[in-house]
Amino acid sequence: MKRWLLVACLAVVPPLVHAHNAVAVGCESVQLVLDDRVTPGVLDRLWASGESVEASPAVLQLRGCSGEVLDTVTLEAPLARLDPTALRGAPAFTVLVTVDLTTAAGTYSGPLTRPFAVHGTRLQHVQARTVNGSQEPLVLALTGKAAWKKVRVGKKDHLIFVRSQFEDGQFTTSFRRYVPGPQGWSMRERSQPGLWESDGEFPLRRLFPSVPNNK
Fold it and tell me: What predicted TM-score, i.e. pTM, was given to this entire model?
């Protein structure tokens, strides 16, 4: 029901244009559609600045072989980017989409990246399986106290994510590794006391836990 509401809302917003953001899935494509007021120059100038922009939210679309819209996801803000390279080793065709949620103040806001997978005629936000078997959305933030990287390991792309949070009177830094496998994405996490900030060096890869049984 919510998805139909999102599609209906698109009919009443100003015209949207493609900002040369598309990734082919056979004869289909995943496309990022931006408001026509978000030109490439505006996108570059305002990205991660915290400045507001008077424009409609960005839209992620899955288009069929004849150009028809198969599925639509409306993002949270007008500024967004689509990684032109699909993730290697994912069980389904998967792309990274980043929406800029930076605010003018605070160190816990910034661009937010999520992987979206193509399943049939639908776009689905990727979930990751934790060590206890539960599933949680795979979300990667870039803020003053969080950062992530895509790293190639063999024939797969791993996503490693570091984040510091203030808890119980002290900072704790967590290190996560997300790995694709035949049954989906798996996540392992380790934490240690201390503060990490994104203006410093990104942590060494060995600090991130490995995920077994993902060959």
Answer: 0.86
